[in-house]
Amino acid sequence: MESGAPFRQFILKVHGRCDLACDHCYVYTKADQRWRLRDRMMSREIVDHVARRMAAHVRTHGLSSVDVVLHGGEPLLAGRNHLEYCVRSIRDACAGCDVRFGLQTNGMLLSSSFLSLFASLGVRVGVSVDGYQEAHDRHRRRHDGSGSFDAVAAALAELREWPEVYAGLLCTVDLANDPVRTYEALLEFSPPAVDFLLPNGNWSSPPPGRGPRGTPYADWLVAVFDRWYPAVPQETTVRLFTEIITVLLGGWSRVEGIGTTPHAMIVVETDGSIELSDMVSTAFDGAGATGLNVARDDFDTAARHPAVRAARTGVPPPACRDCELRRVCGGGSYAHRYREGAGFDGPSVYCLDLFRLISHVRDRVGRDVALLAGRSG
């Protein structure tokens, strides 16, 4: 990737704490504990710095559109007034550029009051939910240890009444949960899209159930794919699968961890620190740090930072050079490549799973493409 390639997605940590205590959270339960030292909420002063830096970045690179994700912690803890201030300040500063806002929430505080605000501001909302009640409540618990499923399900019932706001669901894969039952439980919420997230892990801290052999995560996802793919009409979009298919057919991926498209995302923490993804910070304390801050540094400086450039390239590591699926896999997520003493230069800890999943999708779709070609001939 060329030096200084612009960012097109900005993740803003508008609130640094959470009203859940999920034991699989990549912010609070992993190696990097710097969240304890940061401001609880992004101040208006920092928001103003972000808006000014984004506006300069947009003008410098002539960007016609950018995406902003309001994130946390739990972003709804910031409150209606502060979230509205964030959206309006950035949109006003970036006048002439289409600034598309999204928000990722655990759903606990989602209400008609928030939803009416987001509808008026054009903010799309994604909710994290792990399927059926037993599956969800295994990890996504309140601080007192009680489950959160009932509250999230009620919020999703409300969200379904606001289709212009409803972006989709994010589900973390748990091998203990039945894959098809999990997927069908998500369908009950009528999501326009579903994202499946692999648990964060690496070679030095492997994800649950990921040993030196076998493909447990691919097996889980293949079961979901085989339920999703033949459904007519299509019940929802599963981004992981659609991105794999897109790249297999010669297109470019829009998500990190699939394909070789250079990544265009950067994070701003509550205190204004400019950082790599939280997922990178699961490797070791400070892994995502750049030493930059929006109060004194612009986003072009961040784009030239060596650590940022290394994480954004989209180029598979050398170990993947001879792999037949390297263009589709892209080496997997940068965060999942880490090994103590070797850094991020190896393949993903999910290498075997990715190979099996992509091969399965390729073979299934390939048969259909061949059948269609035969019919057209």
Q: Could you name the key traits of this structure?
A:
377 residues, 10-stranded mixed beta sheet, 10 strands, 36% helix
What does this entry look like structurally?
- The protein is of the alpha/beta class.
- 36% of the residues lie in helices and 14% in strands.
- The chain has twelve helices and ten strands.
- A ten-stranded mixed β-sheet has the order 7-6-5-4-3-2-1-8-9-10.
- The radius of gyration is 20 Å and the shape is globular.
The ordered H/E elements are: EHEHEHEHHEHEHEHEEEHHHH
Q: What is the overall shape?
A: globular
| Percentage of residues in strands | 5-15%
Structural class computed from helices and strand pairing:
alpha/beta
Number of strands: 10
Please provide a brief summary of the model.
The protein is of the alpha/beta class and 377 residues long. The chain has 12 helices and 10 strands.
Topology diagram in text:
Layout: E1 9-13, H1 44-61, E2 65-71, H2 80-93, E3 98-105, H3 112-121, E4 123-128, H4 133-139, H5 149-159, E5 166-172, H6 179-187, E6 193-197, H7 216-228, E7 237-238, H8 239-248, E8 265-268, E9 273-275, E10 289-293, H9 299-303, H10 306-312, H11 326-329, H12 351-376
Parallel strand pairs: 1-2, 1-8, 2-3, 3-4, 4-5, 5-6, 6-7
Antiparallel strand pairs: 8-9, 9-10
